[in-house]
Amino acid sequence: MIKKFFSIKIKRYLSIFFLWLRKTLISVDSISINPIKKPVRKAIKITDYFLTKLFGSNFIEFEVSSACNARCIFCLYPEIVKSGKRLKNMDTETFEKALENIKQTHYSLLSFTPTTGDIFMNKDWFIYVDKIRALKNIKQIFFYSNAILLNEENQDKLIEILKKDKTHKIFALLFSVGGTDRETYNTMFGVDKYDVVKENINNFLKKLQAEDIIVKVGLEFRLPKDTKLDFNKAKLLFNQTDYEFCSIDVLYKYMYNNHIAKLNNLDYMVEVKNPKRACSYLHKTRYAADGGVWADGCMISEMPNDYSLKLGEVSDSIELIEKNRKKIITDWEQENKIPKPCQGCSFYR
Ligand code: SF4
């Protein structure tokens, strides 16, 4: 317990240091002339790398929409749709309550990554991002999107926010992509949007380049078993402008638990057998689009018709939410009562 406390503290201090370093380097970059820019920009990329590694397990997952425009085969979304859950955009009243709630928490890192859904499904996404960016306690923001709705309008809104973000809180935008050809994309994402995504990402990177904005853009490829990514091809297809803060990564292995049927064309992470210590991700908090507050927020943390990781509602007090979290953790560690989504979970940390 003490070890865990110190590792959280150390990660926090290191993040503060790297955030400060990144801001300083970006300021130096803005007043530097060309030969100096090169090493400074290299140093910014190194700080981005460390900041991503320091995400840890203590942050907020904020879901502005639980509705999605893709049908990824590695996601529980199709099952959740079948269960009859009302998938929706977060409304203003719920958002304002969540904002009040977040102000009282200890979190400093926030991800606009929904458990299911996509940020751009909510047409007010930029208002919510901007308001959360203004919170004093939130120092670092990132998000994932499938980029299907990263159209001209949303690209421009995102650029506008990034330009306003003088303290560089928004430090990473991560886009999930399904391969370097249409067929692989359709297999992984279940919709025919390969060309749209490719065009959206290229156009957005061109705008970042033209505006000379520094933000980490991660292209994260989701691929089926036995498919290797040709990184050069991926770069030529998706980053035609050669935006230097764009990185490419691949996810070859997927998460599952005891209740998810495995697919033959996916490779899976190996599960941890009967862990005694509760998963550290239970310290994350998800603010769901419908006003629910949950522990964790990973892709399988909400199973159809299961509420075992639910901590309460956005109108509940922080004390009640934390009391419920404590109960889930002690039930696991003292009575071996493991919440349904965590049983056999291969993403256990
Ligand atoms: S065990 Fe899996 S489902 Fe449970 S909190 Fe950890 S990552 Fe999420």
Outline the structure in words.
This protein has two domains: 1-54; 57-342, Aldolase class I (TIM Barrel, Alpha-Beta Barrel), CATH 3.20.20.70. The two termini are 14 Å apart. α1 packs antiparallel against α2 (34-53) and α6 runs parallel beside α8 (194-211). The strands form two sheets. A nine-stranded mixed β-sheet has the order 6-5-4-3-2-1-9-10-11, with helices on both faces. The chain has a two-stranded parallel sheet with strand order 7-8. It is 41% helix and 14% strand. The mean pLDDT is 91. With 349 residues, the protein is of the alpha/beta class. Iron/sulfur cluster is lined by residues 279, 281-282, 296, 298, 300-301, 341-342, 345, 347-348. Residues 279, 281-282, 296, 298, 300-301, 341-342, 345, 347-348 line the site of iron/sulfur cluster (SF4).
Topology:
Blueprint: H1 2-31, H2 34-53, E1 60-62, H3 77-82, H4 92-103, E2 109-111, H5 125-133, E3 140-145, H6 152-164, E4 170-177, H7 182-189, H8 194-211, E5 216-222, H9 231-238, E6 246-251, E7 253-254, E8 267-268, E9 285-287, E10 292-295, E11 310-313, H10 318-335
Parallel strand pairs: 1-2, 1-9, 2-3, 3-4, 4-5, 5-6, 7-8
Antiparallel strand pairs: 9-10, 10-11
Helix pairs in contact: 1-2, 6-8
Iron/sulfur cluster is lined by residues 279, 281-282, 296, 298, 300-301, 341-342, 345, 347-348.
